[in-house]
Amino acid sequence: MSKLEFINSPIRNAKLEKDKLEMICSCFVEDFTASQTAKKINISRQTINSYYKILRTYLIDQQKMLDNIFLSTISNKSTLTIKYFIYNSNVIFYVQDNDNTYFLSNENTNKLDIFINSSLKDSLLKHKRANCARVLYNTNTKEYYVSGFLKSSHDVDNFITNRLKKFRGINKENYVVHISESFIRYNNTNSSLKKQLLDFLNIKY
């Protein structure tokens, strides 16, 4: 969602006081539930959910742009580490690259997604000990190949599953949104998230 779309939205036209808006932003960054935030600042949960949706959508849209940049340059990397975990029967794949993780939502039919679904998924899931694969990219054939399976830490998996436990239930249709947000939170500090969101809302940090 662009700043212009936000300014023109019905929620923005409600003209909450700036301090209330900043409090909503702070509670979102601290990962309070909508009910907790509504109680804390005395605003209806429906209003909080509406603001949360705007903030979440903005962050996810920004992350998608970064993901696209990463995917467009992925052929420059000779080796990739692709990991997975299972959440509510859904298999979640992601790439770990230096200090960042990139959620592979399978929403795009890029070459890496196709490779995972056609060549990697079944063999990795059947492996009794491994939770990730080392993948090579051949610049001549422009194809991916599995060079080996290995077991790695569960830091990302634990962060996301523990975070999502606080929600009483996640609609199957919305689980990708919640997973995407969880990866964003894993990759960013609360301080950096707050700065991004206050900039988006045109509030000085």
Could you explain how this protein is built, in words?
The protein has 205 residues and is of the alpha+beta class. Helix content is 52%, strand content 18%. The protein has helices at residues 3-7, 10-13, 18-29, 34-41, 45-72, 111-126, 155-164, 175-187, 190-200, and strands spanning 79-87, 90-97, 100-104, 132-138, 143-150. It has a 5-stranded antiparallel beta sheet with strand order 3-2-1-4-5, sandwiched between helices. Strand 2 (90-97) and strand 3 (100-104) form a beta hairpin. The protein is elongated and about 60 Å long.
CA-CA gap between termini: 20 Å
Helix vs. strand class: alpha+beta
Strand order of the largest sheet: 3-2-1-4-5
Residue fraction in strands: 15-25%
Profile the largest sheet.
Answer: 5 strands, antiparallel
Q: What attributes does this structure have?
A:
about 200 residues, alpha+beta, five-stranded antiparallel beta sheet, 9 helices, elongated
Short description:
This protein is of the alpha+beta class. The protein has helices at 3-7, 10-13, 18-29, 34-41, 45-72, 111-126, 155-164, 175-187, 190-200, and strands at 79-87, 90-97, 100-104, 132-138, 143-150. A hairpin with a 4-residue loop joins strand 4 (132-138) and strand 5.
Helix-strand blueprint:
Blueprint: H1 3-7, H2 10-13, H3 18-29, H4 34-41, H5 45-72, E1 79-87, E2 90-97, E3 100-104, H6 111-126, E4 132-138, E5 143-150, H7 155-164, H8 175-187, H9 190-200
Antiparallel strand pairs: 1-2, 1-4, 2-3, 4-5
Helix pairs in contact: 3-9, 4-5, 5-8, 7-8
